[in-house]
Design a protein that fits this description.
This protein folds into 2 domains: 44 residues; 149 residues, no CATH class. It is 20% helix and 39% strand. The strands form 4 sheets. It has a 6-stranded antiparallel β-sheet, with no helix packed on it. Strands 5-3-2-13 form a 4-stranded antiparallel β-sheet, with no helix packed on it. Strands 1-14 form a two-stranded antiparallel sheet. The two termini are 17 Å apart.
Length: 197
């Protein structure tokens, strides 16, 4: 009886403690939309952006852990490098600044190679170049997706040429899941005693 009471006390303490375990922040997730208004291949790019360096609603600067296209204009077909630009072979620039949950600066430039045809993505809200790949220069205020010399679209509106929308993201700490499982195991003997099973 004494042993069961002690086990119940431990289980209750663990269970109550779960209520005070903080959520681990998985970083801030954003959706983005870029309207390609100039060039031979017009249309809209949409995607998601994971910024692990900043809490939702917070501020900071750092690299995106993933930038994934969810749709691109049909004229591009399928991109040689796939839909995740952060995994393309040439990662030239990857820097985002967030202020109170709003992206206030972006410098992202990656490519699948140094020569055409290669997939190239340039998102640049600054007033100057953020790098070159082969003959391609990611100049100031340029947002461009380029698949070949004949298949590309762009706008020269910098940050105003991209719409970023935050998507709140938080996941439980792994340790809280372990505590929860442990507390349930601690309660198991009492379930049998209380309910006759």
């Amino acid at each position: 009886m004494k042993k069961n009471r002690k086990a119940l006390q431990v289980a209750v303490v663990l269970f109550v403690g779960l209520m005070f375990v903080p959520l681990a922040n998985a970083g801030s997730i954003y959706t983005f939309t870029v309207n390609l208004t100039s060039g031979p291949t017009l249309g809209t790019i949409t995607g998601t952006l994971d910024l692990p360096f900043v809490n939702p609603g917070g501020s900071g600067s750092g690299a995106a852990s993933s930038l994934v296209f969810t749709s691109i204009p049909a004229g591009f077909g399928s991109l040689v490098g796939g839909n995740m630009a952060t995994s393309w072979a040439e990662q030239v620039t990857n820097l985002f600044t967030v202020t109170s949950g709003t992206i206030t600066s972006d410098e992202f430039f990656s490519s699948t190679g140094f020569a055409q045809p290669s997939d190239v993505l340039c998102l640049n809200s600054t007033s100057s170049s953020v790098g070159t790949v082969g003959t391609f220069d990611c100049v100031g205020s340029l947002n461009e997706l380029n698949a070949s010399a004949d298949v590309f679209g762009y706008n020269e509106s910098g940050l105003d040429g991209i719409t970023f929308s935050p998507v709140s993201s938080a996941t439980p700490e792994p340790s809280s899941l372990i505590l929860f499982g442990t507390s349930l195991l601690g309660l198991a003997p009492f379930r049998r005693k209380l309910f006759g099973r």
